[in-house]
Amino acid sequence: MTTGLPVQPHNASAYGAGVKGKLQWLADARRYLLAVGQELHRRGFTDAYNVVRTCKGGDAVPGEVTGRWFRPGAERGVYLMLFQWSGFADGICRRDGVRVLARWTEREVPRRHTATGPNMYFNPSHAPCDLTRGVLQVLERSLEVGE
Questions:
Q1: What is the pLDDT of residues 14-32, one digit of tens each?
Q2: Which of 3, 38, 111, 145 sits a CA distance of 20 to 30 A from 96?
């Protein structure tokens, strides 16, 4: 994928886009995060723990796609969530409300709180390689602290 995520013509919930439109949004979002994951893999995030998940949510919400990527043996990794925000436009998201939440995260361990870094937001209009570069520029120091 060499371009950003396609712009949604309307709210991607089942009410706004219909079930078919919502499923298409989730498929597009998943494909985009998988492409970001390939870029992270090229930069050493090759741990077998890496995963991309899709959550459809209910009819009233568009759902979301999340991913976690770690370097082998690292305590901290990258967490990304692609979602559509129906609230006010704040300059971070696109006109359709779609944005990427990024933060560092610890590995999940049963019966232990998983620490995470502060939420940072990115515009998914950029190609996956450009988004990856921007996310890593912001998170790299925090990822090194956890190692």
A1: 566 677 777 888 898 899 9
A2: 38
Q: Are 27 and 20 in contact (CB under 8 A)?
A: no
For residue 91, which of 122, 61, 119, 117 has the smallest C-alpha distance?
122
* CA dihedral (27, 29, 34, 39) positive or negative: positive
If we measure between CA atoms, which residue out of 61, 60, 57, 63 comes closest to residue 28? 63
CA dihedral sign, ordered 93, 108, 116, 141 = negative
Residues in the chain: 147
Are 121 and 139 in contact by the 8 Å Cβ rule? The answer is: no
Q: What is the pTM of this model?
A: 0.84
Residue with tokens 């995060």: 33
State the Cα–Cα distance between residues 123 and 108, nearest whole angstrom: 27
End-to-end alpha carbon distance in the chain: 31
Instruction: Break the chain into its structural domains and give their ranges.
Output: 14-107+127-145
Which residues have C-beta within 8 Å of that of residue 100, sequence separation ≥ 6? 80, 81, 82, 121, 122, 123, 124, 131, 135
Is residue 79 classed exposed, middle or buried when 0-12, 13-18 and 19+ CB atoms within 10 A define those classes? buried
